[in-house]
Amino acid sequence: MERALHAELFEAFGIGAEGALATEPAPTCLAYTSYLLRVAHGGSFAEALGAILPCYWIYGEVGRTLLVGGSSHPLYQRWIEAYADAGYGAVVADVLGVLDRVWPGLGADDRVRLTDHVRQTSRYEWCFWDMAWRQEHWPL
Fold first, then answer.
1. Which residue, among 75, 129, 87, 66, has the nearest Cα to 1 in the 3D structure?
2. Domains (ranges, CATH) in the chain?
3. How is the chain split among helix, strand and coil, in percent rounded to 5?
């Protein structure tokens, strides 16, 4: 769903796939994706789940919240509808369901690490949106 949405938005904004992939990530984006990759490659499954969970969960919450007011801009409205969609909500519910199945089998230390990753990537999600708002770029 997200790939199709992104392709649609790239086309509407006149950005080809090559251009989107060739764009250098802003500092916050690079920090966030590097964090996700480090946790996914160096941590446990539970840690990776905690790190990736906000990526799904927050977008679903934002989409449903924004759907109430909508947007007069058709591209923004398309984005809102995609993340407010029941199908996307089902994906979020599936990921939360995995967490519900994994959580009881975790020890106290693993629960702390998972929770810390959820907290950290939730912060990164906020920073990611703020980065776009500020049109962050490398100063050098």
1. 87
2. 25-134 (1.20.910.10)
3. 85, 0, 15
Q: To 10 degrees, the CA torsion angle through 99, 105, 109, 112?
A: 20
Task: Determine the Cα–Cα distance for residues 89 and 61; give it in Å rounded to an integer.
Answer: 9
Catalytic site residues? 55, 125
Report, in angstroms and rounded to the nearest whole number, the Rg of the chain calculated over CA atoms.
Answer: 17
Mean pLDDT of the chain: 93
Query: Which tens digit of pLDDT belongs to each residue from 92-108?
Result: 999 999 999 999 999 99
Q: How many CB atoms lie within 10 A of CB 140?
A: 3
Q: Quick one: CA dihedral 8, 10, 11, 13, positive or negative?
A: positive
pLDDT of residue 51: 98
